[in-house]
Structure formats: C-alpha cells, structure tokens
Amino acid sequence: MPEINGTKPVGKQPNKLMKLLNSKNIVPYIFVSPFILSFLVLTLYPAVQGIIMSFQSILPGQVEFIGLENYSRLTNSTFYTALSNTTIYVILTVLVLTIVPLFLAIFLNSKFVRFKTIFRASLFIPALTSTIVGGMIFRLMFGEQDTAVANQIINWFGIDSVEWRYNAWSAMFLMVILGSWRWIGVNMLYFLAALQNVPGELYEAAEIDGASAWQKLKFVTIPSVKPIIIFVSTITIINGFRMFEESFVFWEASSPGNIGLTVVGYIYQQGIGQNDMGFGAAIGVALMIIIFIISIIYLLLTGTFKRGDE
Which residues span the membrane (predicted)? Predict the structure, then answer.
C-alpha cells in the first residue's frame, strides 16, 4: 500500500504468538512435544518411581526406606529359575522368530508362489488375536486328555500322550509355540518389505556368475536384509524378557515346580500376589538392567554402532 502524506500504512500486524509458533526454531519442538510429554509421563516417571520403590518397603499406609535389602533378596532359587526360564525362552524365540519368518518371506517373495496375499494375511492374523484368546485355544489343543488334538497327533506316531502343562520341556514348548504363532506374521512382513528393496540387478549378476540358490541367499539376500535381521532379533530379545501373557494363560499365577515362571511373572507374583511392591520393583529394575546390557552387547556384536565406512 502506498504511503499517504509520508506516513506508513497501518496494516494488520501479525500476532506475536502466531509468529512465535510459526518460527522454524519452534515448530519442530511443537511437533515432537506430544512424544516428549508422553515419554516423560508414561515412561520416565514410572521408571524413576519404580527405582525409588525398589529401595523401599511398601505396606498399606507405611513406606520405609530400607536401602539395598530388596536387591539382596534377589539371590534366591525362585528368581534364578524365573531368569533361567526367561533366558531359554528368549534364545528359542529369537531363533524361531528370526529364521522362520525370513524363509517364509523369501518363499512368499518368490515369483513362483501364487495366492501370496492369502498366505500373508493368514500368517498375520494371529498378531491381531489376543494372547488370552489364542492361549485358551492352545490349552484345548494341548490338553492332558488323549482326545486333545496334540495328543491324538503324536498317538498316530506311536508316542504316548503328554501332560503338556506339567513337564518342563513341554511347558517351554507351549510358551515358545504360542509366542511364535503370534509374531511370525509380523516379523515376516518386516522381511518382506526388506526383500522388496533388494535390487534385482544383484540377483541377475549372481545368476550370470553361476551362483546357486544357496549362494544367492548367503551372499545377496542375507547381507541385504542384515539391518532388518538385527532389528527383528533385537525386539524379539526385548519382548522375550518382557514375556508374561504366554505363561499366565497356561498357569496363571503359579506353575508346578515353577516350570512356567518368568521374570515378569515373578514380578506379578511378588508385587501383586504377595503385595510386596518394593521387592517387585527391585525385580523390575534388575530386569531392566539385564535387558539393557544384553541389548547393548548384542548390538555391539552385530556391528550396529559402526559407521557405514568402517
């Protein structure tokens, strides 16, 4: 607008607040603020509160600081059993939930397979199912009666019926197969997405060089999807140590001889069942430290922290 009699036109001045909100220095913080707030309220605060509780004896209406007494109680056979069960579960699920989905993804990524969408959907559906619902079905399938599905199948091969929920090996088998059943489809989708980004020229060059199917898998496919393999195995490790539902659905709060007891189950048993919140918090802090150390060691061993040019 031109000046009139040497005076500047009086236009609508931008609101200072809007100007501040539209600033390039402020906008990024506005967008990340929901995550930061939810992290502070839902993750950091409970974690700090849990650490504080681990040094306390908490009874109804009475809270007392007792130092490291809760941590000294961790040296008991039940905790070692829970940690052993959880560790075995983690190892088995990492193997199953990394290898099986990878080969399923390779199979479904093949141009020779028909009805791919049906296969992908059928493998992903268990992830949408509640663990409790799936576990109830598994309890019926792996019942102790001779008429249970699993016992009928092994009876066809001349093997005696098994009391699946009352043996250590079969108890671990039940937890692993339930967890694997739920997450194989999800991990397979990760690998499928990674495989579809592998350049076809690499396979063409390998074919020209006369590479066999195994050599293409070893020297082309696996190196190309290595970051996803590390990602899938890492989240499987973390989820394995946090496992609770797969055990609870078969034995609820306690299992015979603690064959199905996990570390999180032990937290539930002590913190909720026995109302010993201080000791439960100490177990939780110990579990958090274990997960952190193992995850860091695993990522170091797999070279995740190395730069691309190293």
Answer: 26-48, 88-109, 121-142, 166-184, 225-244, 279-301
Q: Is the separation of the CB atoms in 263 and 86 below 8 Å?
A: yes
**184 in Cβ contact with 192 (< 8 Å):** no
Check if the beta carbon of residue 146 is closer than 8 Å to that of residue 152: yes
State the residue for tokens 């031109």: 2
Residues 6+ apart with CB under 8 A from 269: 253, 254, 261
- Average pLDDT for 150-162: 92
Of 198, 186, 175, 182, residue with least CA distance to 88: 175
Our CA dihedral for 299, 304, 307, 310, rounded to 10 degrees, sits at 90
Q: Which residues of 46-62 are buried (b: 16+ CB within 10 A; e: fewer)?
A: eeeebeebbbbbbeeee
Strand partners, 64: 57
Q: Which is nearest to 165 in space by CA: 271, 249, 80, 81? A: 249
pTM score, whole prediction: 0.85
Region of residue 301 (left: phi > 0; alpha: psi -120 to 50; beta: else): alpha
- Does the structure show a pLDDT above 90 at 58? no
What CA–CA distances, in Å, run from 64 to 21, 111, 180? 47, 66, 42
Phi-psi domain of 163 (left: phi exceeds 0; alpha: psi -120 through 50; beta: other): beta
CA distance 125 to 183: 10
From its phi and psi, is residue 161 left (phi > 0), alpha (psi between -120 and 50) or beta?
Answer: beta
Q: How many CA within 13 A on the CB side of residue 212?
A: 2
Q: What is the pLDDT of residues 86-99, one digit of tens each?
A: 999 999 999 999 99
Burial classification of residue 90, based on how many CB atoms lie within 10 Å of its CB (0-12 exposed, 13-18 middle, 19 or more buried): buried
CA 99 to CA 138: how far, in whole Å? 23
